[in-house]
Amino acid sequence: MIKFTLISLFTYLALSVTAQEYNLSGVLKDSANNDPLIGATIILSNEKDTTSKKLTTSNLEGLFTFNNLVNGDYLLKIRYIGYQTITVKQQINGRNIDLGIIILNPSQDMLDAVEVEGKVLPVVQKGDTTQFNANAFKTNPDATTEDLVRKMPGVVVENGTVKAQGEDVQQVLVDGKPFLEMIPH
Known about the structure:
Structural class: mainly beta
């Protein structure tokens, strides 16, 4: 009976030592002003099996922690927008690991300038008035007003008379001011 109890005790101790779990932690800070980096993404993967991953983010103090780790070799990847990504090999070997303060440097990769180009609406209907935006219609540099008017949809120039949707145009305004008074023949 004593022999069975000793074997059971040794088996229990052996299993508890091999099943021990540990923690890995650290604090992320900015290299320029030592401010904590909040919300950084930290990925921990087993070096032998990179499909097995744990993920966490840094808190308001820049602190991150991985719990319940078993002994082994790990890859720790730290990502934060606007900063260089850090990848570190870390071994868990029978104790908790505190990496202390980890300084991240701003990324040197900057995007080129971005040009935002808006499109001008060619036509706007306001009540019984149709407004055409002249910038929306392409004409030659030496074009006349008549050349521009001919490009506008629904507008026809016949014998010096401008018609829009079949009706004679009585007045043309440019920036709200009379440009051309049309007199019906």
